[in-house]
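The following record pairs a protein chain with its ligand, glycine.
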Amino acid sequence: MSEPTVITVPGDAPYDVTIGRDLLDRIGPALAPTVKKVLVVHPPTLGAQAESLRERLSEGGTREVLLAEIPDAEQGKRIEVAAFCWQVLGQADFTRTDAVVGFGGGAVTDLAGFVAATWLRGVQVVLVPTTVLAMVDAAVGGKTGVNTAEGKNLVGAFWPPRAVICDLAFLDSLSPNEALAGFAEVVKAGFIWSPEILERIEAEPGSIVDPASASFRRCMELAVEMKARVVGEDFREAGLREILNYGHTLGHAIEHAERYRWRHGAAVSVGMMYAAELSRLAGRLSDDAVDRHRNVLTSLGLPVSYRGGAWPTLLATMQRDKKSRGGMLRFIVLDDIARPTVLQAPDESLLFAAYQEIAD
Ligand code: GLY
C-alpha cells in the first residue's frame, strides 16, 4: 500500500493534513500527549466506526473517550446541537488540555470545530473528514460555525485544527452522486489553481471519480495543497482566500432558490460555468477557456445550466449574501485558467448577459 501524503498548512499554528488509506491509527498520535479526555462528535451513520475509534483512542483505558452522536448534515449545524456537546463536555469535566475529534462530513467537522473553539475559549480539535467535500474544503482552513434561522454560517469562529486525517477508504461507500458532488470542489481547484487537475479529468472523465484510483487521489492531494497554500497565506479571509468562492456566489443563490435540495457541488458547478461566462463577457477569459469549463463539467455529468426565469430572485439573493461587501457584489472571475481575480460591482446588464449564456 502506498505511503500517506502529508501536506502542511502553514500559519501561526501550522498543522498537517494526511491523505491516504486506512489511517485511523494516526488519530491518537495526532492528539497532544497531555490529552486525558476526548469527545468524538459523529453522525448516526458512523456509529459503529465511532465505537471502534473510541477503542483505539482510549489507549488501553488510559484516556476517557466519549461519543456525541449528532444529526447528519445541516441538521447537525445548529446552536442546540453545540449546546448538547457543551453539556457533555461540562458533565465530564473536560479541561483546557482535553480534545474534540470531529468525525464525519463537512457539517459535522464545522460543528465539532465550533464546539472546540468555544469550550473554555478553545481546546484542540482533530478532524477526520469522511466525504470528498469535507476533505478538500470544510476540514482544512479552520472555518467553524453553525447556521441560524437567518442564514448559513452566520455564527462561527476561525479555529485551526491540530491535524486533519483524510482516510480515502471512507469514500468507497459514498454513492457515485455524492462523490461527484464533492468532486466539484476539486474541479474548482483545477480552474482557479491547478491545470493538472483539469488534465487528469480530460484524460479519464469516466473513471476519475473513483476513490480507489491513483488519479483521484492525486487530484484530492492537489486540491488540498491549493487550500493549504491559500488559507496559510490568508487565514482570516482578508484577501486571497476569497478566490475559493469561485462559482459560489451564484451557486449559493441557486442552493437557496432550491431550498437546499440541490447538492452544493451541483450548484457550484452551474456557478462556475456562470463565472466563466461572466469572465468572458468582462473581456478577461478566452472562448477556449470557457469551452473548457463546459467540457470538463459536462464530461463528469455536472450541470452547467439553470432555469431562465429565475434571474431576478437569484440576483436579489446574491445581493443579500454576506460575502458582498458594503452591499457591493463581488465575483471571483478568471483572467485565464489558474489566474483568479475579483470583479467588483459589475454592471447588472453584464450579470444578466452572462446568465442568459447558462439559462435553459
Ligand atoms: N470554504 C471556503 C473557505 O474555506 O474559505
